[in-house]
Each structure stands twice: as C-alpha cells, then as structure tokens.
Amino acid sequence: MFSPIDSYDDAGVVFTFGGFSLGVWLVFILAVVVFVGFFVRMIQHENHAYKAIIDHTPIEPGPAAEGEPTTY
Amino acid sequence: MASVNNEFFYWMSIALMMLIHAGFLAYEVGASRSKNVLATAMKNLLAFATIVASFYFVGWFLYNAMPSGFIEFNDAAKAALPWSDNMGPNVQDPASGIFWGAFALFAATTGSIMSGAVLERIRTSGFLVLTVMVGSVTWIIGAAWGWHGAGWMLTKLGFHDVGAAGCVHMIAGFATLGILINLGPRIGRFLPDGKPVTIRPHNLPLTMLGLMLIFTGFFGFLMGCVIYAGDGYATIYASPTTLSAFAFNTLMGLAGGIIGAYLTSRGEPFWTISGGLCGVIGVASGMDLYHPALGFLIAFGAGCIAPFLGKLLEKFKIDDVVGAVSVHGGIGLYSVLMAGVFLSGYPNTDGNPSVSLWGQAVGAAVFAALGFIPAYVVSLGLKKVGLLRIPKAVEEQGLDLSEVPATPYPEGIPITTMRSSSGTAVLALGEEVK
C-alpha cells in the first residue's frame, strides 16, 4: 500500500511512500512531534521525581525487596 | 589488495565509533559516585538517541547547506532534506545513508564529550537540550565551515584540521565551559575559601577501561575522517593521504600524550590515561603530514599541558568532572595552532590558500566562539527557567534514588579492608563530602 514501486526493474527510491510525498511529510512531522513530546514527558517525570524526594515520599511504595539495602 | 567496498568501509567506521560511546558510558559511570551511577548511564544513552534523531532531522542538512557560511539551498542541501529521495533506502544511492551515519556518530561523539563534565548535578532533560544543540547544530555548522571540501575556512584561510580537533573537540570543549559556568560545581567540590576538594570516582578502574574503549573507538573516528572511494584515500579537504599516515601519528600521539601527562601529573591515573586522548587530539589537525617523531613531541606537549589546564579551571571554581574542557577544548585549540606552526606553507588543492598560522588562529577563534557562545546563552536560559540544575536535596541523595526506578548495586559494593598497625583488619570508611 505504501510502496513507491511496482517492480525492482530500474528501481531507485524504494522507501515507504517515496520521496517528496504526503506520506513522508506526515511521518516526518509525527517523528518530530514524538521527539519533542519525549522532552516534555521527561521534564514532567523529573519534576515529579524531584518533588517526591523533597517531600520524602517513597518513589516505589511498598516494602523493599528481600536483600535490597535501604536507600543511600 | 582488492579495494574494500566504500559502504563497508564506513559501516566499520560507524561500528568502531560506537565503542567511543561504550567508553563514554563506562568512563562516566565509573567517575560518578555510586548514588548517581544509573542516572549517568541513562544520560549517555539518551544523549546518543536524541542526537542521532535530531541529526537526521536537521544536522545533515546544515552540513550540506552551510559551507559558504550561511544556508544555501544548493543541490547537496536539497538532497539532505529528510523528505528527499536520498534520505532513505534508495538502491541507486549507496553513499548518502552511510555518510550520514558516520557524521551522526561524529555528532553523537561531540555531544557526548560534554556529558562527563556536568555529572551528578545537571538535569538530564536540560543536558539533552544542550547536547542536541551542540551535536546537531553548532558542531555541524563548524564542520561545514572548516571540515568540508568547500568550507569557507578552507577556501578563504587554507584551514587544515584533518582529524577534527577544531569542529569536534574544540566546539565540544568550549561549549562545556559555557555550560559549566552557568551550572556551577557539585555540592562540596570547593571549600568556602575556594580550595578544591577531590570527589573520588566510585570506580576508577572502570573509568580507565572506558578510556581504553574510547581509544579503540578513535580508530573508527579517524577512519571516518578520510574520504574513501574504493581506490585510495583523501583528506576531507581532498588532498591525497593514506591510512598509514593516520596510523603513524595516531599511535605515536597516544604514546606521547600518555607519557607527557604521566610526567606532569606525577603518575595520577586519571590524567595519565586522559593524556592518551590529549595526544591523539593534539596531533589530530595535522596527522596526515607530521613526521611521527614530531607527532610524538606535539602529543607529549599536549599531555604535559592538560593537567595544568585542569588546575587552572579549579582556580575559577569550575568543576569539570572528567576534564573535558582541558582535554577537548584546550588541547583541541593546541592542535589547531600546532598545525599552523608546523604545517605553515603546505599547499592545499583546487587553488585554495596554503596552510598558515594566521588561518589556523582565525579558525580556532571561530570554533571557540561557536562552541562557547550558544552553549553559554542557552544554558543561562535553562538556568533562568529552572531546567539546568537538579534541586539540592536531590543532589545530596543522588539521582538514582529519584529518577531511576532501579538499583545499581542491590547487593552493595565491596568495601576495601585495610590492615591496621596492630594487624587487625579494619574497614576503610569515607565520609561523603557535601
């Protein structure tokens, strides 16, 4: 469905959608959105983790696994 | 000997350069205290991932679009756009992907050089913003200007830096300096009177193994510094060369740097092995042309200087955990200038000006500014919005405890026992510096 070629005879571009196509534009934009979203999500994770430490709330509730030392 | 396929040549270069990242990871994990081990490893992994992705998005385009100094939509630039026919599987184009890949590893190396210097107190997200900027924007602009067959530094100044001491090492080193000024030292690194306090790595042998991996990876890095078309080698400036030339001076550089750093650091392990890196970087700019004995001497000088640069930074209360500013920034600058001293008058190809000390000095100044200014400004901005440094409580308790849902040493770290004067074994306990 996303192939730019019908056969390999004289084929050049073989990647999905083909160059300069709507499909390539869409996946490129989506990839950039995911990339930026990763940073947003990471900052949220950090803020949550730092607040938990400052508030002395456990990161992983429940008893420590057997043999696991107390935190540093 | 039959020629090696061009794609396979750079494929091996990429694979070997991955060892640089294995080395960075081992080095930095070892240099951290045990409370920051996993967060350090995560930072390295994420730096690699974010730089490679962003280098695909913008980096390769910038390299092809900016040799003249500013963005130009020439054919090479258009072919480097992520939606072009060349930036994906194309059975008629065996070059674009493999060259992009090699440059992506250069980018990841440049961005990761900063990683060790900022250990144990930078926010991972803030670091990733900075490393993406340096790895996918600033260094590659520097490469387009001074490490490209049509770069304006070559065509106007006769600039010569075959081993990328300027665009990779100088830019990374000076960017690190800009960030460290805004980031500040780790808690306890300096006493109130400014006296530096040594914060010991939790695993010094691992740092040494890491540097040995980096040395190995450097052979892949330097492999990627030559243009190979299946029938011989040329420098990035199109002058003929051989891998033999690189072998002579890479190995003599390693040797000279290690010996030099050993002498001036009085056998301190961290600086001695970092001296090897200093040696290779020190000869990088002119390693296609130096006599190996001269390469050894230049590298020896690089190794001798680096520990003093580290001490100089301490006087300004700059906490560079792994010596990145000294080793990469300082010795990168040294390398570019040494090429000006010893290669002055050497010709370039295609009618470009000859190598000169003046051209090297101007090029070095451009790289220093390109490294320092954007990193300083962006890190200052991150500092203003609270995204540069972790809170004090988190720094004291460690990043692993807060950010990483795993334990690096669940069974504890073996503690060295020392024999007391009375003959009984006692534990060697250390008080944590805060």
SS elements, strand count of chain B: 5
Overall shape of chain B: it is globular
CATH topology of chain B: Ammonium transporter fold
Give the biggest beta sheet of chain A.
none
Explain the overall architecture.
The complex is a heterodimer of chains A (72) and B (434). Chain A is 46% helix and 0% strand. Chain A has one helix spanning 22-54. Chain B is 62% helix and 3% strand. Chain B has 15 helices and five strands. In chain B, the strands form two sheets. In chain B, strands 1-2-3 form a three-stranded antiparallel beta sheet. In chain B, helix 5 runs antiparallel to helix 13 (357-384), helix 7 runs antiparallel to helix 12 and helix 10 packs across helix 11. The termini of chain B are far apart. The interface between A and B is large, with 36 and 39 residues.
What labels describe this entry?
heterodimer; A: mainly alpha; 1 helix; B: 434 residues; mainly alpha; Ammonium transporter fold; 62% helix; globular; disordered C terminus
Per-chain topology:
The complex is a heterodimer of chains A (72) and B (434).
Chain A: H1 22-54
Chain B: H1 6-31, H2 37-65, H3 75-79, H4 96-113, H5 124-146, H6 152-157, H7 165-183, H8 204-223, E1 226-228, E2 233-235, E3 240-241, H9 243-265, H10 269-284, H11 292-315, H12 324-342, H13 357-384, H14 392-397, H15 399-403, E4 417-419, E5 425-427
Antiparallel strand pairs in B: 1-2, 2-3, 4-5
Helix pairs in contact in B: 1-2, 1-4, 1-8, 2-4, 2-5, 4-5, 4-7, 5-7, 5-13, 7-12, 7-13, 8-9, 8-10, 9-10, 9-11, 10-11, 10-12, 11-12, 12-13
